[in-house]
Amino acid sequence: MNKLMRHTFLWAMAWLLSVSLQASASQVSSTAPARELKELTLMLEWFVNPDHGPIIIARQNGYFADQGLTVTIQEPADPNLPPKLVAAEKVDLAVYYQPSMIHGVANGLPLAWAGTLVATPLDGLLVLDDSPIKSLKDMKGKTIGLNIGGIENAILDTLFAPYGFGAGDVKLVNVGWNLSSSLMSGRVDAIMGAYRNFELNQLAIEGRKGRMFYYEENNIPPYDELIFIANSKQHDKDAIRRFLRAIELGTQYIVNNPEKSWEIFRDYSPEKLDNELNRRAWFDTIPRFDLRPAARDAGRYQAFADYLQATGELKTQVNTKDYMLDF
Amino acid sequence: MKDSVKPFVVLIGLLVLWHTLVMAFEMPSYILPGPLAVANSMVENASLLWEHTLVTLSEMLLGLLLGVLLGIILALVLVYFTALRPWLLPPLLITQAIPVFALAPILMLWFGYGLTSKVVMTILVIFFPVATCCYDGLRHTHQGWLDMAQTMGGNRLAILRHIRWPAALPALASGLRVAVVVAPIGAVVGEWVGSSAGLGYLMLQANARLWTDQMFAALTVLAFCSVTLYYTTDRVLRRLIPWQPETSQE
């Protein structure tokens, strides 16, 4: 009898325990449901490189997951593909260039600024340090190699205006991605479309020294080199806000931990990223990342769009309220 | 229906299909502009297109001329200098195995960003089909004709001039037809990698500014050049080589 009672008691206790465990489990799940991860696709403008530092750090450090996001990073074959895919709603977000986005908006693409990644121009007019071109006024009649970005004529007209000539007084040659090699081989006298954090380092690695005429120091209104774009008609503002929070955390981590963040970035894809050029570019890019990626400066954007309009680059007028998301 | 009318009927049919697709699927112009938008862009940018077409056409025609000459010389060398054949064939095949797109950046650095590099690209693309077709034609001369020529005391040059060359011309004509169709690829790829003018350059500019209609306008002009070049070559070849199998069947 004792044995039976003991068994019955144990059974009862076990049952009560399991019921209470189930109840507490269901209580937990009803008060704090497992957060469903929101999926976002992000298309870069080019293959992964240090310019994408905050994105990679946010992913590797789990900031996206902390914000309830699963971000799929895609790399395009053509840098002009991302805006078309965003416009066609094939990707949620893309990394793109501010001047080109304004071009896209002016051409009727439903694009919108959705955050900033690199907050200053990276581009500039690059010459070899031992070149006879000492000042922009020496550029008259020279050959400039470029990777067509779409606003070359406006930029050159502005750069040369103080010296009494314009883009028509230089020879422009599209050299595709052979920027450094065309400059070093002497095929061209200067290059534009070259980045201060990359091409200058590339030249240094090859034993050459470059000198850059910075746009923002030569009358070109400041602009963001890399921004995030979304579809202006179809977008999930809440998810984008969380995405930008993760990017902000990524940038903060990089600024606070330059060396450690380089190691994390490098280890994302060591066979592609672990090289001297990327290492140098990493440290040169850190001061360029936007510490407040969601901060919106409509006045600055309008000033740049007005500049493009004044130079004849834009066919139609654009207004920031039509192409800047407000957080 | 007259043969000369048929291509135009096909062209109009394609334009109608294009327009219908754009209308039916309400395609935004940045994905696929309609034929009317492209036509409009062609009118608006007529002088710009003309200026760049002349550049691309000159690259294509010069490349064709030199590529065909090189192809024929190569075919003759392969036929008459049999000892050289095993040495020449592998490098020839290698030039075709490497995609021109991969080779283009290097060619630009060697030959510069002007006309020469584009002509070299075009030659690279077309000399092989010309050489192989001409080589095949020269090799497969009817043995009976050769025997008869030899019996009649013809020397090598006379046999080439009167027997082998005329017999090889239909095959060479096939190579030429391929060459004129692929010649724009060489020129335009060259322009994509390094140039300051030409339809390929114009396409890059339009693409960077997201002017899809202008890009399609340049593409349409390029297609028109290719088709015109093809039909002109075909017509000339039919007239010059009336003993071509396809000509004689008609």
List the helices and strands and how they pair.
The complex is a heterodimer of chains A (327) and B (250).
Chain A: H1 2-31, E1 38-43, H2 53-60, H3 63-66, E2 69-74, H4 81-87, E3 93-96, H5 98-106, E4 111-118, E5 123-128, E6 143-146, H6 152-160, E7 171-174, H7 179-184, E8 190-195, H8 199-205, E9 210-214, E10 226-231, H9 237-256, H10 258-268, H11 270-273, H12 276-285, H13 298-310, H14 320-323
Parallel strand pairs in A: 1-2, 1-3, 6-7, 6-8
Antiparallel strand pairs in A: 3-10, 4-10, 5-8, 5-9
Helix pairs in contact in A: 2-9, 2-10, 9-10, 10-12
Chain B: H1 6-24, H2 35-44, H3 46-80, H4 85-97, H5 100-111, H6 115-139, H7 143-151, H8 156-193, H9 199-208, H10 212-240, H11 245-249
Helix pairs in contact in B: 2-10, 3-6, 3-8, 3-9, 5-6, 5-8, 6-8, 8-9, 8-10, 9-10
A few lines on this structure:
The complex is a heterodimer of chains A (327) and B (250). Chain A is an alpha/beta fold and 327 residues long.
Report on the structure:
- The complex is a heterodimer of chains A (327) and B (250).
- Chain A is of the alpha/beta class.
- Chain A has 14 helices and ten strands.
- In chain A, the strands form two sheets. Chain A has a five-stranded mixed β-sheet, sandwiched between helices.
- In chain A, α6 (152-160) links the parallel β6 (143-146) and β7.
- In chain A, α2 packs across α9 (237-256) and α9 (237-256) crosses α10.
- Mean pLDDT of chain A is 90; it is low at 23-33.
- Chain B is an all-alpha fold and 250 residues long.
- Chain B is built from eleven helices and no strands.
- The radius of gyration of chain B is 22 Å and the shape is globular.
- The chains are: A alpha/beta (327), B mainly alpha (250).
- Chains A and B meet through α4, α5 and β7 of A and α5, α8 and α9 of B.
